Amino acid sequence: MHSSSVLSPPNCSLLKRSHRNQIEKLSLAPLKNLPFCGLRNEILAFEFSKLNRCETQRVRNFLRNKIVSASVAENGNAPTSFDYDLVIIGAGVGGHGAALHAVEKGLKTAIIEGDVIGGTCVNRGCVPSKALLAVSGRMRELKNEHHLKALGIQVSGAGYDRQAVADHANNLASKIRNNLTNSLKALGVDILTGVGTITGPQRVKYGKVGFSGSEVTARDIIIATGSVPFVPRGIEVDGKTVITSDHALKLEFVPEWIAIVGSGYIGLEFSDVYTALGSEVTFIEALDQLMPGFDPEISKLAQRILVNPRKIDYHTGVFATKITPAKDGRPVVIELTDAKTKEVKDTLEVDAALIATGRAPFTNGLGLENINVLTQRGFIPVDERMRVVDADGNLVPHLYCIGDANGKMMLAHAASAQGISVVEQVSGRDHVLNHLSIPAACFTHPEISMVGLTEPQAREKAEKEGFEISIAKTSFKANTKALAENEGEGLAKLIYRPDNGEILGVHIFGMHAADLIHEASNAIALGTSIQDIKFAVHAHPTLSEVLDELFKSAKGTTAPLISLEDHLNKALRCNKDRFG
């Protein structure tokens, strides 16, 4: 925990604009509106600019302690000392990432988990699904006689053991879960077992539902409770023939014909698995096209390769308004309703139905009513720094929410990035995460990945802000490594501003697209322009050259010429900064 500050209170002086600016720079802006008048004057009058980093942190700790004391005098609710610097409710990927970073920052940390370490991603999501997709990828290779013949390979009789495939997924999840648990314990993070409930400012109770439990206090609290599968009304899930992704990952059986409701990431990945294992698939999509969340050009190409040649048909522009599980020898019955007219359009009878209509935040039972916080469609409202906003529009002191529970970007690695960002803030360094730099991937065969804006989103932004955009594309058919693998089907697409070289979005469909996207996401995160990234060197022959060619093909951006003298001066400055 933070040590108590021994710094004497700063002297009061006249309130100046410069003092307000200093407060802003130290991320203490919310303190300006506190009702504790004497303390407010102390804060705003202090000459922060005269302090070095270490002294600034000591002042920050002093002020935070003063805030707590003043708050107690005001309402008697907040504690005066704390069991932990940071308590995290939820031990999924987001909570785990935040905990590890908190330990690195020297914070005494506890994590509360009422289920199992790893959350949805490790136990019922990203991790086991990748095990199933690894199997589907191998099966596709072994069954593709034309592809193998082109490589000079002869294979016959490829098959699979369903239970062994299911065991592979389960064993992988167990291994990763144990790794996460051990890493937390090794770093000294206290794992508190039970359901976490906020009982008041900086207070959390944990324990079994229905029991009294134990209460701990924390200087800061992060909510990281994740999400659960969303099941629309009218759909009866029995966990056997009408299932969610939670059930599907157990692979208890492989149906001859399965309907998948929703054609986003989850639905698309499971269609890859089921068709590789021999199932016929029918997509049911409420919007007018499949894969509505992807860039339209990428969706069109993906449909041509991932859907049309496979045993997949689809219904678009319809809702699955009623689904009845199979029973007594009868099949699963699905009622399809036109999305526009709201009239029943058709009825399907299939062996199973997978509900892949997205996910809903898991925020019930958190005790949000104790701190005047109202959810919005289940999501906890936060600002750009993940600070929780109450029902009156005010920030709740020392309370943050990350990951699926806040709805900003429902991806495991986004939750981890948000958690790290929050830890930076509570450690004294302001940080705002750029969500447009966070990549996403769909692990089909071939894969789809993306970062930033789609082309329609970029054009809308350009029209509002008054700039032009340009598009560059390159094909995997021009890449030596892809051709060597006989995997030339694929496209990379760049959306950028020709006036300043800003990268607005990158979309990839092709072999190992999920790995290739990170060069683009890092470029966006670091503000690297097309002019600069064109000079990056890529090993040959590698798939990374797809991105190399993509950036080099961008038109209308002229890289500034840099003289040898400029390079030498820059190198000298860097060495001086490093070594003095």
Automatic annotation (TrEMBL):
Residues 84-419 form the FAD/NAD(P)-binding domain. This is Dihydrolipoyl dehydrogenase. Keywords: Disulfide bond, FAD, Flavoprotein, NAD, Oxidoreductase, Redox-active center. Residues 438-549 form the Pyridine nucleotide-disulphide oxidoreductase dimerisation domain. PROSITE patterns: PYRIDINE_REDOX_1. InterPro entries: Class-I_Pyr_Nuc-Dis_Oxidored, FAD/NAD-bd_sf, FAD/NAD-binding_dom, FAD/NAD-linked_Rdtase_dimer_sf, Pyr_nuc-diS_OxRdtase, Pyr_nucl-diS_OxRdtase_dimer, Pyr_OxRdtase_I_AS. It comes from Solanum tuberosum. Belongs to the class-I pyridine nucleotide-disulfide oxidoreductase family.
